[in-house]
Design brief:
There is one protein chain. With about 100 residues, this protein is an alpha+beta fold. It has 2 domains: about 1-45, no CATH class; about 55-90, no CATH class. It is about 20% helix and about 30% strand. The chain contains 2 helices and 6 strands, in the order E-E-E-E-E-H-H-E. It has helices at about 55-65, 75-85; strands at about 1-5, 15-20, 25-30, 35-45, 55, 85-90. Strands 1-4-3-2 form a 4-stranded antiparallel sheet, with no helix packed on it. The chain is elongated. The two termini are about 15 Å apart.
């Protein structure tokens, strides 16, 4: 399973994150305060296995700037999809 944590920058080394059953994210607040909830952060489960997840908004932007002539430009569209920025790499099926 893949978890995406939205609303928080990559934690520094040594930081401990805890995700509760509601998907809320808690971070250690050393040295004395224990764990505090990160208000804007939320953990989301990404269905697996999944293919390469791309930036569809960027792809749409690129497509809007192309002139297509029916099916003659099919290969061009496929190339744009293949070249779209990857957000999350594909996840292989575990056997």
């Amino acid at each position: 399973m893949t978890m995406l944590i939205k609303g928080i920058d990559m934690p520094q080394e040594g930081t401990v994150l805890v995700i509760d059953s509601r998907g809320e994210v808690w971070v250690n607040a050393w040295p004395t305060r224990g764990y505090i909830r990160v208000d804007k952060a939320k953990a989301i489960s990404v269905p697996t296995p999944h293919g390469r997840l791309i930036d569809a908004d960027e792809l749409r932007h690129e497509l809007n700037h192309c002139a297509f002539d029916e099916y003659e430009d099919y290969d061009r569209v496929v190339d744009l999809i293949d070249d779209a920025p990857t957000v999350i790499e594909a996840e292989e099926v575990e056997e």
